[in-house]
Structure formats: structure tokens, C-alpha cells
Amino acid sequence: MPQPVCAIVGAGEGLGCSLAAKFAGEGFDIALISRSEKGSSAAAAAAAGANAGANVKFFAADATQPDTIEQALATIVGDMGDVDVLIYNVRGSFTACEPLEMTYADLDGIYRLEVVGAFAAAKSVLPAMRERGRGSVLFSSATAALRGSATHPLYAIGKFGLRALSQSLAKAYAKDGVHIAHFRLDCDLDVPIMRELYGDQYDSEKLADPNDVAETYWLTYQQPRGAWSNEVEIRPHTETWTY
Amino acid sequence: MPQPVCAIVGAGEGLGCSLAAKFAGEGFDIALISRSEKGSSAAAAAAAGANAGANVKFFAADATQPDTIEQALATIVGDMGDVDVLIYNVRGSFTACEPLEMTYADLDGIYRLEVVGAFAAAKSVLPAMRERGRGSVLFSSATAALRGSATHPLYAIGKFGLRALSQSLAKAYAKDGVHIAHFRLDCDLDVPIMRELYGDQYDSEKLADPNDVAETYWLTYQQPRGAWSNEVEIRPHTETWTY
Amino acid sequence: MPQPVCAIVGAGEGLGCSLAAKFAGEGFDIALISRSEKGSSAAAAAAAGANAGANVKFFAADATQPDTIEQALATIVGDMGDVDVLIYNVRGSFTACEPLEMTYADLDGIYRLEVVGAFAAAKSVLPAMRERGRGSVLFSSATAALRGSATHPLYAIGKFGLRALSQSLAKAYAKDGVHIAHFRLDCDLDVPIMRELYGDQYDSEKLADPNDVAETYWLTYQQPRGAWSNEVEIRPHTETWTY
Amino acid sequence: MPQPVCAIVGAGEGLGCSLAAKFAGEGFDIALISRSEKGSSAAAAAAAGANAGANVKFFAADATQPDTIEQALATIVGDMGDVDVLIYNVRGSFTACEPLEMTYADLDGIYRLEVVGAFAAAKSVLPAMRERGRGSVLFSSATAALRGSATHPLYAIGKFGLRALSQSLAKAYAKDGVHIAHFRLDCDLDVPIMRELYGDQYDSEKLADPNDVAETYWLTYQQPRGAWSNEVEIRPHTETWTY
């Protein structure tokens, strides 16, 4: 009997890894979409570890190239079956810059990554989801979607756009039975890149455990269609609210 | 072996009934707090129906009289044990009026119901929850908490205040392991009073099923402490967003 | 020829003083409403200094006692003429406390000050303003109106309620030609009480000059009815946004 | 003696025309930036009509081509002097579509118009403004910047991005004396294109008079640096709030 399929765009070492393990553990086959197979090898191992019976496969695509996203998702459908859950979980560069240091290439890149790629992924699965009358499209985002930044303007511009897209999709297609949700992480994740960034200041108590975050994605996925959240905020119990 | 205790302030025929049934069905003993036993009889029956083994009890209190709320919760702790989940689920009058028609008594009444009563309930359970390092305080609210109204100003004033209280409690006590959440229902519920209000316009498809809403409360309750939502929006998939 | 009348509830040493001077300087007669004449003596002097021809009068009322507010405004109308601009500028205690330290008396007091008193003042002037088809009701508020606080929950609860009231009034009565505006000061003011609170940390560059803030109130007052702001944020150019 | 310079990107028949007239009437020289001189001829006539002594000039640029914006503004500075006020007032297509009908070209176009072009304009004037310690950059936006849309997703995605940019610039450069403001028009303007769109439903009372809106831009421009608004909402007194 075929398992339901969860496709994850941006399945790296952090949250993507936890999401792959969680959905695999709950009985999903997992399609991992990254630029390189190496980039998603940790997620693949985690998914297999969580459920040896899960079908876990890698598909190459570059989120900033919408055609490659469309092709990867078409291949997934042909190979593994319809996508039941799509998680768009890319993460742009956190490199700090002041607004006047942004280049046009930076502006183009963040938009392709956060908005155009998210749209390409959503449009690759939404028509079939609407036809079946069910499906979930989950976008990983951040509090940066709600306020500009003197030091990380690119991140804000990208996440604002992603939130506009997510709300627009939810308003248009929730009625067809498709659950579209924007996860606002109001916290830093306890993932390898953050340990590097924090250095001596690293304190796991202050960061969100990606396994906990994946659990909250899963609980949101389980919401009945009569009582959906379309925007979900997430912070660890130790977090000082920044907003 | 004692069951965990869920106390519900405002357990009437609608959402309170569904919440009582849900938490009873999941193994909780249920303490129902209303002005009259008759007012919570439907909820009591629903809880018993969901789990014949649940200990379901009624305690009289008037949410607009904070001393009675404190007394009822003290009695519950003595009688049934520590409260693990407190749900504050009162609902003020929906009577429409324009702002200049509000009386000082109206203003006082809505504040006592939505803010003072909610605080009285929270303060009756929070010290013990903080000491144990766990517990959940869930407030039923609405989109009225986010915007004023030309036609229902009292409802807005009350819910704004409740939201301020809920955020303040979460910011102060989440770190102690207590999950405080404000549920913004961006919808009308399919409950008896709404059927009356809508009359010929009644369409169950446009309203949120209170059992679905209770399910989403339950899923929120299950969030791990590393990934909590403190404000949860809820709308049925058929809902046109009003905000 | 009679001058237009500006009534200021809460005309103390800080912003109230600057507002009295600004509106007097622009040709308004000024009615100052405070608990004691001494409390508004600085504002009275400032108004007289800005315009020796202005009629500047004191009227006693306690903002937490709505009847006294109503009486003071009725006296003002009888004595000085219809109120053209009402500014509600009270400021509650900044005393820090954690949420569980709030008393019921505290909760009652802040609500009477921020919401009930504001409503009493507004309802004393709105019917005549609606009849004349013009008038302005300006509420002094703060970013506390938008988020709860672990350390100043009373301030948040009061300002949330004030914002709900202001929005409700604007939605109901703007169409009648009455401009209702909520001023969100996202900053601390350079006023005597702040110098005390900051102590050694006092730095006038980081605080908003109350004369500048009064100027922005005045500019908002001048907005044509075809292009009103109902919520106005204010911060000095040196301010780090807190929201 | 040279006049201060106000540069307007997107000076068509509607608000751009009123802004040109307002700032000319207040003593500014006016630089009009549009794709074709014909497109800004009404604004040029309005500015000249408001102040026969104003120097009013046209400069060709395409807001979706950032290099042309940079070149036009460099030419303006060389020709007319430093820009004191920059108004970015482009308006994308209002063509309705559901989200799945958006093309990648549409997504690219709206971003170039609303975000990249706004950034190109800002970056062409901000360094000199920061050096002089004064200047104003004003962005025309809409309530679409705050919520997604089932029917106008492109407009929302563009305005969300513009708001993120505006907040980021304000947070970074207000401290240098540059006033950056985002005008959220929560209304439709009474301009030729709206008369067409509304057809038989056209009712000038329900629309904002662009001269009133220009007046509110002007009043915002006059705010002292100690009390700036960075986000300004505008609606006519007859407007039913949509948010």
C-alpha cells in the first residue's frame, strides 16, 4: 500500500532534518529537494532512521530556479505519487548588511529564493491538491516577515514577500480543502550554523530544538479543516519575545 | 491513579461543551465552572459521554466576581487535585451598540468578564504551575482582540484587554514552563446561539464546528515547550478572512 | 470674537504643557483639566506664555471618576464654548510589577484611567461635534497599546483598551466629520519624571522632546478630512524601534 | 536663490499630479520622473499652475530598470541640485488574478516596480541626505502592504516588500536625520483610473481626494525630527476601514 508523500524543499542539517524524521516516523514517504544530494544526506539518514520502511528519495533542484523546482516536483509525483504535504523550508543567507549595501543581485536572489521558489513549489502541487480536496503547504518563515531590519534587510524583504504569498494562497485555496500555513519562528534554532554564529555565547537553552519545532509543524498539519491556523508562531518557552 | 485535571471557566453549550468532551476523552478529569449547574449540564453530559471514567464536577462561580473564581479554583484543587489545564472560555454579550450607547456599567461589566475574571482564574493556578514547572492556561478570544468596532465596541474593548493580559502572562511565566495561549477565533462558531442570530442565513458550512475548534486547542496543548505558539488563530477552511 | 477651544485632560508638566502652549500659540483658548490646579499650573503658564491673548482656564476633575469628567466638560462648554479639540493625555503609573503582583484595585484603576475616563471625555464632546460636523478627539497612547509586557502589564492592559476605544469611535463617527486619533508614542519623553527614572542614564538625545511631539499632534490636527490618520506613530529620529 | 528640490518617481495623473502641485506651491522645484514626458505632462502643468516660479522638469526613467532610475536622479542632482524630498509613487497594475494565475514574469515585474525601483531611487539620494543630515524619502503604499489577497496577490507581494524596505531604511538611517515614511492609503483615490474601474458605482464621496492626500504627505514632511511618523495611514473620513 502506498504511503502518503511529504516533499521538503530545503532539507539541510537543521529543521529540514527534523521534519524529514518526523514525517517519516509518522508513516510518510519523504522526497528531499536540495541543490546537491550531499546537502540532504543528513535528512535522508534521519528519515530512514525514524522509519526503516519509509521510501526516502533525493531530487535535485535549485530553489532560485523555478523551472528546476517544477521539474523536481513533477518527477516526484511520477515516481512516488501525489504530494500530500509540501514543506518549503529554504533559508537565505544571514549575512548582515546595512540597507545601502544591498546589491541588485542580492535583492534578486533573496526574492527568487523566498518568493518565486515558494510559488514555484506551491503551484507544482496545488492544482492536484485542490482536485483531491486535501493537502498541506507549509512555509518556514520568521519574525523577519513582520518587521524591517537595519542590519538584515534582505532577510526581511524576502520573508515579507513569502508571508504575502502564503496569505494570498490561503485566502484563495483554503476553501478547496488545502491547508496553507506560514510558520513564524520567533527564535533561533539550535542547529549547527547557529552554534557557529553564537560562538562563545552559544546556549542551547536559549535556542529552539528543531525536533520540537518539527513536532509543532506536525501538530499543525493534524488540525481539522474546521479549525485551521494559517499563521503559526513558534518560540521556545525560554524565549524573550522580540515582537 | 489520579487523572490530570482540566478546569473550564465558562462551560456552556457551545465550545465549552466540546472542550469538556475532548479533554475528558483524552483522560482528564473535568472541573466545570459556571454560574449555575444547569448552565454546564450539557458540558457535563458531553464529558461523561466521552469518557465514562472521567471525574466530572461542577463548581459555581461568577466570572465577573473574581473572589468567586478564586474560591472555586481553590475548592477544585482541594477536591480534585492540581489543575493541569485551565481554559478561560467565557463569552460576553454580542448585543450590538454604537460606542456612544455604551454605559459605564457596560464598560465595567465587560472588563470584569474578559480581563479581571481571566486574571483571577490565572492567578489561582499559576503559582502552583510555576512550582511544578508545567501547566497550560488557554484563553478563548476572537479577532475582536485586534481591531475596534463601530457596532460591537464592548466586545473589542474586552478582548483587547484579554490579549494584553495573555501576552503579559506568557512573557512573564513561559520561562517557568507554563504554556499560556490566546486563541483568536476568526470565525463564528456553529453553536445554538449563532443559529438563532443567523436565522434564515444560517449555513453550517460557514461556521466553525466547535468540535474541530476543541481539537485545535488540544493540538496546541500538546506542543512541546521548545516550540510553543502563544497566539493561535483559528478559522474554518471555508472562512473568508476578515482581517 | 470667540476663539476655538482646546480641552486637555491630563495637562501636567510634560507633554500636556507642550500641547497647551502649542494650541494656545495657534489661537486656541485652553481648558486644562486636572485633579488639582497646582498640577496644571505649568501648562497654564506655558499656554499664557505662548499667547497672552488666549483664554486659559483650569477645571478640576479626576479622570478615574467619569462623572467629574462629564461635569468639567459641561462646565467648559457653558463657560468657554463648544470644544473643538479634546486631548486625552492622562498617564498611568509606570510602576513596574510582574503580572501576578497586580491587584484587583490596580486593574480597576488603570481601566478607569485609560478607558473609562477617555470614554467619559469623548462622550462629553462627541454629540456636539457630530452635530456641527467637525471636531477632533486625540488620545495620547504608547507602543504598550500593541504588546503585552512581563514587567508593565497594567500599562499594556490600559493602553490596549484605549486603542480599542479609539478605533471603535473612529470607525463609528469619522463619517460625521469628527477626527479621532490615537497617538502611539514609541519612545520615552524628555520630561521631568523620565529624567528621574533614567538617573545617570539620562540622555536627552534618546528621548522625544515634548514640544516636537506637540508639533506632530498639531500637524495631525491639520489633516484634511479627506486624508486622515487615525493611528499615528511617533518616535524621535534617534529612536531604536522597539516594535 | 536655489529652491529646494522635490523629485517624484511616478508622477502621473492622480496623486503624483497633486503632490507636484503641493510641493511646487510650497516653494519646491519639481523633478518629474516617468517613462514618457507625456505621462507626466499633467503633473508638470499642475506644478507650474501652483507656482509659476517653480522650476519643473521632466526626466525619463523606467522604475523597473534601476539603472535608469539611478541615471535620472544623478542627472537631476547635476541639473537642479541635491534632492531634498524624494517621493516614490509608482503604482502597479490592479489587474485581478488568482494566485495560481501569476506568471514568473508578473512576479518579477511587480518586484522590480515596487521594491527594486524604490531601492534604486532611495540609494540614489540617501548618501547625500545622510551627509547633509536631512532629507525625506516618502513611499506611496497601501493597506495591501499588510495582508495578502485572493484576488490581487501581486499587489500584496509588491507592497509587502516595499514596506519591508521602508522600515529597514528608516531603522538604519533615521538617526542620520533622514525621514523615511511609508504612506498606507487605506482607500481608493478619486483619480481617472478609479472612475473607470468603478463605472456606475463611482461615488466621489467614498474616494480620497488626491489633493487631500498630498496635503497629508506635506504635513508629514513638516514633522520635526524629534517626533516622526515612519508609517502613516490615510483614509477619508467616509471610509469604512478594511483592516
Description:
Four copies of one chain form a homotetramer. With 243 residues, the first copy, chain A, is of the alpha/beta class. The first copy, chain A, contains seven helices and seven strands, in the order βαβαβαβαβαβααβ. The first copy, chain A, has helices at 15-25, 41-50, 66-80, 104-132, 153-173, 192-198, 210-221; strands at 5-9, 29-34, 56-60, 83-88, 135-142, 178-185, 231-234. Chain A has a seven-stranded parallel beta sheet with strand order 3-2-1-4-5-6-7, with helices on both faces. The radius of gyration of chain A is 17 Å and the shape is globular. The model of chain A has no long low-confidence stretch (mean pLDDT 94). At the B-C interface, helix 4 and helix 5 of B face helix 4 and helix 5 of C.
List the defining traits of the structure above:
243 residues, seven-stranded parallel β-sheet, alpha/beta, homotetramer
